[in-house]
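2024-03-11 09:14:02 INFO queue: dequeued item HNH nuclease domain-containing protein, len=207
2024-03-11 09:14:02 INFO validating residues
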Amino acid sequence: MPTTIDAFIALVEAGWDTDVARRPHGQRTTVVVHVDVDTPAASLHLGPLLSDDERRELLCDATCEVWFQRHGQPIGAGRTTRTIGRRLRRVLEHRDRGCVVPGCGATRGLHAHHLVHWEDGGPTDPSNLVLLCPFHHRLHHSGGITLTGPAEHLVVTDATGEAMTGASLARPPTTPPPDVPPCPGPLGERAQWWWYTPFEPPPTTPN
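2024-03-11 09:14:37 INFO prediction written
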């Protein structure tokens, strides 16, 4: 028999689902991608061609609407998928607490990143998702760092293949700055000619 707690949880989940449908928290961007079926090329709607890295970064945490075309003519539409829901994002925030790159510590504006990319068949579940700050998300997709999952045993390596640790990134200072007397600045008095040493050319040597 359901308890009061069960009923409360059901109400909370129903409210979440309604809010997700009305204002999807995880839907940061809607990406309309046109894919040519004859060539491995993709472009934004009314926009430029995308590199592989740009396409993968956009598809990490977005709604993706794919249109297939041949010779510039649309021949069909793919599925529309909202990849990260509000409840799933909260699970990631509770688990990761911030950007997962060791030593980063960023907690705001995080992106949910697929370790196995969504377009490669990677699932949208916690074991395949980690949170990254915008800087490290872009750095990963440009090849600066590599993330190897699953999320529970994540390994982050730099461009040389070395595993990154908490000491890999510069940390902000934890002590106050040293006491340095402030510059007095100009006093506003008139400059005097004897303050300056006049230029004297070196003496010439006789030939």
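2024-03-11 09:14:37 INFO annotate: Confidence is low (pLDDT under 50) at residues 23-27, 74-82.
2024-03-11 09:14:38 INFO item closed
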